[in-house]
Amino acid sequence: MPESPEVQALAEFLDERVRGRTVSEVDILEFRTVKTRQNPPSTLVGRALGGAERHGKHVALAVGDDTRLVVSLGRHGWVRWRDSESGELPVDAPPALAEVALDDGSVMQVTDAGTWVSLGLFVVDDPLAVPAIAKLGPDPADASYSQNDFEVALGGRRKQVKAILQEQESIAGIGNAYSDEILHLAKVSPVVHAAALDDDARSRLCTATIETVRGAIDARRGIPIDLLKAAKVAAMRVHGRAGEACPVCGDTVRDFSFASTTAQYCPTCQTGGEVL
């Protein structure tokens, strides 16, 4: 699942390449991606692009002064950039569901690797017209994000903190992978409820959230967008590392499944030695 560090790198990549260019053609290969049927992406042909920005796990391309093409990446969505120097695609490359061609011959291909279409395209006058963006909570990548924002998200809720970290309405941009990394850095169990955290644990968790998100954004910046997933995987300390040694204490990283999701964690660092 795309998360804020990689989506931020994607937005910056697109901002450099689309700013000042004109849309020459739009080809929708999967009609289910279009979520604004009254205002389809084809209406953008002939219009100039003003840049790109991130909203949580979504990318918005400015079209003129009053329109945005929002790409909601969903669970497996991504963007592939094709220009005159692009080579052949790997045989296992995910299919393009939509293509936006620009006046310099480059093409932005929107892809989805899942077995069902999770990706969405919206043509709106304001990103907040996209329901998922309108509901986003504060973003830890923002310089203004504070301990108070984090406390509002946690509250005294009897809900597992891993689920809260991934709850876009509470904290924007974090998914399964970075929630595991945050919890490991903070030395907090993935199954503990927010209401059970003491002040020290809450402070550690807030600090770990900000450091993990902002640190990953800095680390991903400038990496070619087709290599971002591999860079993310390589940087993980515990997520996806079940059976390997914890880089902090050397204990074996464990895998735990619950509530239709999974978590990777270190028993020594996070659960007092208890195997979940």
Automatic annotation (TrEMBL):
Every Formamidopyrimidine-DNA glycosylase catalytic domain range: 2-117
Lineage top rank: taxon: Bacteria
Regions that span the bilayer: none
Keywords: DNA damage, DNA repair, DNA-binding, Glycosidase, Hydrolase, Lyase, Metal-binding, Multifunctional enzyme, Zinc, Zinc-finger
Requisite cofactors: Zn(2+)
SMART domains: Fapy_DNA_glyco, H2TH
Reactions catalysed, as given in the entry: Hydrolysis of DNA containing ring-opened 7-methylguanine residues, releasing 2,6-diamino-4-hydroxy-5-(N-methyl)formamidopyrimidine
Pfam families (UniProt xref): Fapy_DNA_glyco, H2TH, zf-FPG_IleRS
Coiled-coil residue windows: none
Every FPG-type domain range: 237-271
PANTHER family xrefs: FORMAMIDOPYRIMIDINE-DNA GLYCOSYLASE
Family under the similarity heading: Belongs to the FPG family.
Protein name from the UniProt record: Fpg/Nei family DNA glycosylase
